[in-house]
Backbone:
């Protein structure tokens, strides 16, 4: 696992403390350009905290973190961020397109009226980019409706468009598949993977069920009470490693076409795992 | 009362009646003050509704009442009492500890208790003043008589300043209001926005109190904005509709109050409520009810 200088993100021996308690320690991770990395682990181990560390919102208590070869927080305009569990209240009367637009100009002070020629030109370029990302996530039929009226999956697509609108080099997605039904999970996972490959965007996705994204991953980080393990999916996602981390028996099955399926995952409810198994479908 | 005071009456001739409205200096002052206040309250109210801070807005306005009563007691214009107490209340509210960016959703019982005490305090001040008995009515339910040129100018300057600041911070404020986590990651000072907005809200509540009285500020602060949001989710159009509605209910309310014995706050509130109900019925019949999204908190 490298420390190539083109790494977008690098953690070396990193540890973090919140409220006087060490959540995780000894995390080594590097994310290269265009890589798709998953951060996995049960609730409460500090996955979201890891994302906040990368954004520079929290310091590490040991080790180092570099983002774009600099301190965290210095280049957040190059990061597209999707926080955990954002659903808008049903009564929020703001359109999807305005939510996407905030991704481009939401941090800009000044009267929002393009008065000068240059401002009008910039507005035109930005509006083109906005409709481009909206097409990319296939949300053009949704963005004129108030965001609160959309379903969870539809809101998630619009939020991904918002995260992408400034052409970030790094996407931080905190449990974007949570609360989505299975077809929507695979659709969003495939969309993120396409963006990652085609636009060379590095993706760090927090998840607690690895199956929907497993086939797209270059690297995984498992955080659990039993420690931290990082590496390629084939290195980390083994029955031994996962059972050790979770301190409970976990089986990793290999399908006939060589794909991995995690069974007995403590975070996935039984019927959920059964659904994967029963349908005989591993990751696509 | 008003009728006999000014010795004028409704002629049912629209041209004559409108001309009559502009005949007296106090009425011109009232119309100008109402115009300024309606615009400011509608725009700031639009953000307040998006931020779900109506409760904070109401608390701030109620706190204005003892301020205005106290100011009258010590011989200062009630307007300055409103300003001082509303802005102080805004600053205090922003200091109330809140969980997860949901500013001021907690501590409702505490706020309710303090609010009630302040209402009582205002009543005490009015009683101590022993001036005319109408004092308490105009502080609580509005009064358009006796607005001076100086006050109109003060209202205008404060409104221009507040709207200027709001214009400059409008995008970061909207971002911080609906998406605080992402806004913070993008470097928007979310807490600073929250404090600044509450101060602007305090100024708007103080100005609105001058027209509608402390208890009825929602007529100008919430109703036009809430009605506009029912009609359109577009921010600029919504703001424009809110302003138009605010102006309409204020002007019509002033005109009707001039010819009637009831306080202006009553008329403005009734008109604004009518507009809201009409918009609610209209949107329900055209779009149906919004689909609820079942997601856990
Ligand atoms: N600001 C904070 N102060 C104290 N404890 C915190 C704070 N933020 C998070 N925690 C705790 O840190 C732990 C990890 O949180 P989080 O990173 O959200 O976990 P995950 O995303 O893996 O579910 C939780 O137990 C949470 O209660
Ligand atoms: Mg989390």
Residues:
């Amino acid at each position: 696992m490298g420390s190539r200088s083109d790494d977008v993100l690098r953690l070396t021996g990193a540890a973090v403390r919140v409220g006087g308690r060490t959540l995780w320690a000894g995390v080594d991770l590097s994310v290269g350009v265009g890589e798709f990395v998953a951060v996995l682990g049960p609730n409460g181990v500090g996955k979201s905290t890891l994302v906040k560390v990368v954004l520079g919102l929290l310091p590490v208590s040991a080790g180092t973190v570099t983002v774009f070869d600099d301190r965290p927080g210095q280049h957040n305009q190059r990061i597209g961020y999707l926080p955990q569990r954002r659903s808008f209240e049903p009564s929020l009367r703001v359109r999807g397109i305005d939510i996407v637009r905030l991704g481009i100009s939401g941090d800009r002070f000044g009267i929002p009226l393009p008065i000068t020629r240059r401002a009008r030109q910039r507005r035109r370029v930005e509006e083109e980019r906005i409709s481009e990302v909206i097409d990319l996530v296939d949300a053009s039929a949704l963005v004129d409706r108030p965001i609160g009226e959309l379903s969870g999956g539809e809101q998630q697509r619009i939020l991904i468009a918002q995260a992408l609108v400034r052409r970030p080099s790094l996407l931080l997605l905190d449990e974007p598949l949570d609360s989505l039904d299975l077809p929507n999970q695979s659709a969003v996972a495939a969309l993120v993977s396409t963006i990652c490959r085609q636009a060379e965007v590095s993706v760090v996705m927090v998840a607690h069920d690895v199956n929907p994204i497993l086939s797209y991953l270059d690297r995984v980080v498992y955080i659990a009470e039993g420690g931290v393990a990082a590496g390629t999916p084939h290195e980390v996602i083994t029955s031994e490693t996962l059972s050790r981390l979770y301190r409970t028996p976990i089986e990793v099955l290999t399908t006939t076409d060589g794909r991995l399926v995690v069974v007995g995952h403590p975070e996935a409810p039984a019927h959920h795992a059964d659904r994967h198994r029963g349908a005989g479908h591993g990751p696509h | 009362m008003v009728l006999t005071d000014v010795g004028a009456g409704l002629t049912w001739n629209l041209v004559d009646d409108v001309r009559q409205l502009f005949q007296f200096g106090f009425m011109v002052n009232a119309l100008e003050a109402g115009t300024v206040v309606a615009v400011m309250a509608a725009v700031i109210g639009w953000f307040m509704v998006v931020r779900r801070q109506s409760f904070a807005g109401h608390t701030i306005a109620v706190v204005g009442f003892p301020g205005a009563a106290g100011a009258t007691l010590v011989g200062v214009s009630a307007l300055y009492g409103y300003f001082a107490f509303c802005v102080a209340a805004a600053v205090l509210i922003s200091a109330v500890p809140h969980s997860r960016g949901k500013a001021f959703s907690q501590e409702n019982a505490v706020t309710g208790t303090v609010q009630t005490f302040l209402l009582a305090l205002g009543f005490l001040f009015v009683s101590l003043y022993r001036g005319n008995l109408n004092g308490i009515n105009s502080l609580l339910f509005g009064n358009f008589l006796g607005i001076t040129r100086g006050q109109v100018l003060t209202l205008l300057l404060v409104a221009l300043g507040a709207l200027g600041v709001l214009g400059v911070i409008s995008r970061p404020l909207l971002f911080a209001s609906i998406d605080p986590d992402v806004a913070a990651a993008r470097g928007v000072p979310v807490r600073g926005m929250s404090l600044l907005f509450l101060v602007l809200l305090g100024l708007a509540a103080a100005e609105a109190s001058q027209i509608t009285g402390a208890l009825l500020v929602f007529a100008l602060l919430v109703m036009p904005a809430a009605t506009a949001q029912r009609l359109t989710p577009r921010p600029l159009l919504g703001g424009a509709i809110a302003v138009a509605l605010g102006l309409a209910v204020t002007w019509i309310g002033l005109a009707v109050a001039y010819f009637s014995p009831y306080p202006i706050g009553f008329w403005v509130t009734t008109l604004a409520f009518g507009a809201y109900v009409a918009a609610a019925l209209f949107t329900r019949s055209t779009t149906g009810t919004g689909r609820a999204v079942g997601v856990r908190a």
The interface with chain A takes residues 50, 52, 167-172, 174-175, 178-179, 181-188, 229-230, 232-235, 238, 290-293, 295-296 of chain B (CB under 8 Å). Residues 1-7, 99-103, 288-297 of chain B have pLDDT under 50 and may be disordered.
